[in-house]
Amino acid sequence: MLCNSTFRLARVTNEFLEQASSPLNIKTRLSTFSNTVILVFIEFVTPIQFDWFEILLTNQVEPLQYYPDNTYLCCGLGKSFSNLLDKPFIQNLFWFEPEMKRQVDFVPELTRAIWLIVSGKEQDFGLISTDFNKLPGVKVDPDQDFDALSYFLRFRATINSQGQKLLLEDSRVIAIEAYETQSLKDEVAGLILAGQYDNYGRPYGSYLKWLSDSGVDGSGVTVGVVDSGVNVAHPAFDGRIKDLTNGKSQDLSYSIIMQYYQPRILLLFFSLLLYHHSKYPLIS
């Protein structure tokens, strides 16, 4: 996976966007990068409509991620964004400034391993890694395995603070994250679920080895995360999503949470009630 459920491509606030780019500045910069793939925030006049998505895609502009309010980080050629400037449903376009991008903290003079998330296709990795290796303070292994998904590439690199600054200024770089080696958050629970415990209920062995021996490595698995803001009636989800509330207007996540937790909440309530009466019996 390229990211987890808390991952954000940018660290952006509404105030930051308002100060980012003037209309005149954005036009000039788009013309400079006319034939270059860049990242730009598009602010819409209202919550985005399905036909607006079609217009973006027709102009070869790909929405990557939503940011409140009514703003999307998008990827495309500079000239493609220029074609959208006069569209009535677009409020503003903002340049993806280096200081908006996720980055890591550095101890002076030290290097650290990081994940680089960039815009590009699988076939672009060779050129991107070559370009980045020319930057002072940046080292990318061109023979490494990397992740490729839609407009995203994710690969490892070793950088220092100077290298990070230069990378953030590259229009292809979306985010820089700390690299962490694979680790288990709760191996005991994993071993129990895998049935790796003795007659006394004591877990044994390695959960990672069990996964490897069982051929479970995530290959061919698609993971989707949906929050409570999803519109199940949206044409984009036609035939691809199920409304668990049977058309009710209540919040979807509330429905799921209450189905799971309500019996437990009631059990906890009655347990506390019995405990209270056992300590403080009613006097008749």
Please give a structural write-up:
This protein is an alpha+beta fold and 284 residues long. Helix content is 32%, strand content 19%. It contains nine helices and nine strands.
Provide tags for this entry.
globular, 9 strands, 284 residues, disordered C terminus, disordered N terminus, 9 helices, alpha+beta, five-stranded antiparallel beta sheet, four-stranded antiparallel beta sheet
Report a brief summary of the structure:
This protein has helices at 14-20, 23-32, 50-58, 78-82, 125-133, 161-168, 187-193, 207-213, 252-279, and strands at residues 37-44, 62-67, 71-77, 90-95, 112-119, 138-139, 147-149, 152-159, 173-178. With 284 residues, the protein is of the alpha+beta class.
Strand and helix layout:
Blueprint: H1 14-20, H2 23-32, E1 37-44, H3 50-58, E2 62-67, E3 71-77, H4 78-82, E4 90-95, E5 112-119, H5 125-133, E6 138-139, E7 147-149, E8 152-159, H6 161-168, E9 173-178, H7 187-193, H8 207-213, H9 252-279
Quote the distance from N terminus to C terminus: 63 Å
Query: Secondary-structure element sequence?
Result: HHEHEEHEEHEEEHEHHH
Count of β-strands: 9
- The pLDDT mean sits at 77
* Radius of gyration from the alpha-carbon trace, in angstroms: 25 Å
| Main sheet specs | 5 strands, antiparallel
- Judged by helices, strands and strand pairing, the structural class is alpha+beta
- Low-confidence sequence ranges: 1-8, 249-266, 275-284
Helicity, as a percent range: 25-40%
Can you count the helices? 9
| Residue share in β-strands | 15-25%
Shape: globular
